[in-house]
Sulfate adenylyltransferase subunit 1 (Shewanella aestuarii), 480 residues
Amino acid sequence: MNQAVNNTTRMAAEILEHGVKQYLALQQNKGLLRFLTCGSVDDGKSTLIGRLLHDSAQIYEDQLASLKSDSAKMGTTGEAIDLALLVDGLQAEREQGITIDVAYRYFSSEKRKFIIADTPGHEQYTRNMATGASTCDLAVILVDARYGVQTQTKRHAFIASLLGLRHFVVAVNKMDLVGFDEKIFNQIQADFADFVKDFGDLDIHYVPLSALNGDNVVNRSSQSDWYTGGTLLELLETIDTQRELSELPVRFPVQYVLRPNLDFRGFSGTLSSGVLKVGDEVVALPSNKRSKVERIVTFDGDLAEAVAGQAVTITLEDEIDISRGDLLAKPESAPSLANHIVADLVWMDEKPLQIGQLYDVKVAGKKTQAVVSEIEYITDVNTLERSAATSLSLNTIARVKLDLTETVVLDAYSLVRDTGGMILIDRLSNATVAAVMVVDGYQGQKQVSNEFSPFELEFNALVRKHYPHWNARDISLLGK
Ligand SMILES: Nc1nc2c(ncn2[C@@H]2O[C@H](COP(=O)(O)OP(=O)(O)OP(=O)(O)O)[C@@H](O)[C@H]2O)c(=O)[nH]1
């Protein structure tokens, strides 16, 4: 079938039916699902993504033509088109040593828009997986039907759940090589379910497929009559990740205070969770001042209510002092304030973590500083075994205690990701060095100062004076 024609015909039919304006509005309002794909090397990840794009008519004629000739030259699939070549450009770049953390791919079906975060599967790439997973709603975990649940599968499932993903699709691939044997599929399902049984409340779907032949990817297979669930695309189109966010307590981190003239004062940001209505009573944190929502303003006009994920500007009935980094919540379900935190942390820097060193912290639009005061344990991502450590190297996952230089508004990461997730930043290089998932927080006596020592200040001044071409930042201005 000519996919380009197919694609254009679908679009043309939709435009004819609804008119251009409505067509654009429909596209705009389609729900968005961000998902992550992971699996061991050669499980068929590239082929699967290629198959999804191909069968949902996302490939244009010129791409298809060059794919055909590339497949003949270097594909691994004989006469058939090697769909993996569609996405493997990334691999070549990787081999040349170009660092690509996560590749994002976009496509849409009739029901939804999708962003795929395609992360490398090798062991040393925990950091990249963490980066990809932190913005995703769902993980597709590939398993080769011949080999079943592998160490890599477990590692990915663990990291994804640690990063707050609650929706999983276990794609049991290469079912064609095991004769679409239901028993094999059931065994993989049982093994995976057993491994994740202590990971909390997960929503897991299993689908038997052949990425190579297109069985149960977009189109239903005739070879798996025993399977009653949806195809992979059907699952991706229907799994509801947005509803849960709306059911959570209201969290509105203020990203920007909008004051175009004296008559208007609005607070712009994206509603992280919950539903906020005009007239709702809100509390601003950390000031604890209360008011009511007067208007919910958007570019397309005012709304009566905003749901999680919507970017809006909120005006309040009273003039209360709110600045960037503050948070609006409902008084009855407001988050707690903390300056001591217990958290899970993924270390992402080549330079090891130093206990007691001051790092910048970003949490829900707010910037402050913290030190890691203690490493409770590190977890071996392959066996889940815990052990003691005094420092953390690249890609290590640990449970730590952090002391902040000031009190911040926090949630447990498992409750609301935006207000429970933080990043640590090296104060001199400005590099992101860790992803932090808050487990618990409490308010205690302040112990940490964000001052640099006299030696650090002097040394920094010396470096800036004699080595201006290094472009070192003036640390005496940091945090001011
Ligand atoms: N028989 C069969 N082979 C498959 C299937 N899916 C993928 N393959 C083959 O498995 C091999 C690996 O597929 P890729 O898509 O490159 O695997 P990958 O997981 O992306 O591998 P990396 O990109 O190296 O991580 C290729 O030779 C594919 O043609 C399938 O459903 N059935």
Observations:
- Residues 39, 41-47, 76-77, 84, 91, 121, 173-174, 176-177, 210-212 surround guanosine-5'-triphosphate (CB under 6 Å).
